[in-house]
Amino acid sequence: MKPAAFEYVRAGSIKEACAALREANGEARPIAGGQSLGPMLNLRLVQPRLLVDISGLQELSDFHEGDDVIRIGACITASDIEDQRIATPAVPMLAEVAAGIAYRAVRNRSTIGGSLCHADPAADWVNLLPALGASYVVTDGAKTRTVPAEMFTISAYETALQPGEILSAICIPKLSREVRWGYVKLSRKIGKFALAIGAVVFDGGRDVFRAVLGATHGKPIVVADATEIFAHQPFRGPAKIDELRIAELLEERGIAPGPARHLYLAALRRAAAEAFGS
User: Fold this and answer.
1) Residue 199 and residue 132: Cα distance in Å, rounded?
2) Taking all residues of the chain, what is their mean pLDDT, rounded to a whole number?
3) How far apart are CA 63 and CA 112, in angstroms?
4) Is-contact 270 198, C-beta < 8 A?
5) Is 112:74 a contact under the CB 8 Å cutoff?
6) Does 17 reside within a domain?
């Protein structure tokens, strides 16, 4: 199929892009890489009256490293991160996770901000960034606000963006050299979306111990203090998972007992093994 007819404008600034989105009264979509929006247009799952192209805005492709945080522009692509065209040694898992997103042709165009705003529950950035304690910079062209990663995704394909707002940057706290981490996604085939995701980040140097269960058909399950789901502190040996607590968390998200629960537990167990040893 082909898309329904739409108008197109290439924004010259963030302010212009936000104004165009606001004036369209919900009938416009921003587009950058188009790796999710493009297929949805072709299948006519979405039929916006207007597309606002933000791919050429330099402000959305900037990268900045501060003393404690790295700031990644929303239009930076997965391949930019994979190939270290932006330097992210202070958050070493970014390049490795980027390399496992879909296929190379997709990574060349797919933007980190586009993935977050599409909010597919099984997307890698949607699940990894809450585990890192990231926050997102959102703007309406005049004012900006910061949204914690775990609060940005409301539900499947729904975010905290308000009409006329765009996501401009992702801020990720730097990690210490002591960091241990694991990220595992279980898929039917390499390159496909995950059936279950487990992420664990333990950074004793910054007093961080977070875990995420992802691809839950809704927003990720973020455990800000992962001692809640581990039987003892992980630096004392292989981590032991509290399976009853995991079951409770999955039950709260409507995931009934059965094979699906075992997938989430397996993903988390493997992520913990990557972080702390089997």
Assistant:
1) 9
2) 93
3) 12
4) yes
5) yes
6) yes
Q: Which of 74, 66, 214 is nearest to 131 (CA)?
A: 214
Please tell me whether residue 152 adopts helix, strand or coil conformation: helix
Q: CB-based burial of residue 23 (10 Å sphere; 0-12 exposed, 13-18 middle, 19+ buried)?
A: exposed
Instruction: Give yes or no: residues 132 and 202 share one domain.
Output: no
Report percent pLDDT > 90 for the chain. Answer: 85
DSSP 198: E
The predicted model gives 124-131 an average pLDDT of 98
Instruction: Give the residue among 77, 30, 78 at the shortest CA–CA distance from 54.
Output: 30
For 112, phi and psi rounded to 5 degrees?
A: -65, -40
Residue 111 pLDDT = 98
Task: State how far the alpha carbon of 99 is from the alpha carbons of 145, 161, 167, 168, 223, in Å.
Answer: 30, 27, 23, 23, 25
193 shares its domain with 257:
yes
**pLDDT tens sequence across 92-120:** 999 999 999 999 999 999 999 999 999 99
Top pLDDT among 168 and 205 is at 168
Q: What is the C-alpha to C-alpha distance for residues 254 and 215, in angstroms, rounded to an integer?
A: 13
Q: Burial letters for 44-54: b for 16+ Cβ neighbours within 10 Å, e otherwise? A: eeeebebbbbb
Q: 2 in a domain, yes or no?
A: no
Do 134 and 222 lie in one domain? The reply is: no
Dist. CA 80–CA 74, nearest whole Å: 12
Report how far residue 225's alpha carbon sits from residue 134's, in angstroms, rounded to the nearest whole number: 15
Q: Which residues pair with 214 in a beta bridge?
A: 197
Q: What is the pLDDT of residue 187?
A: 93
Global model pTM greater than 0.85: yes
Structural domain boundaries, residue 138: 58-173
- Band of pLDDT at residue 191, cut at 50, 70 and 90: confident
270, 218: one domain: yes
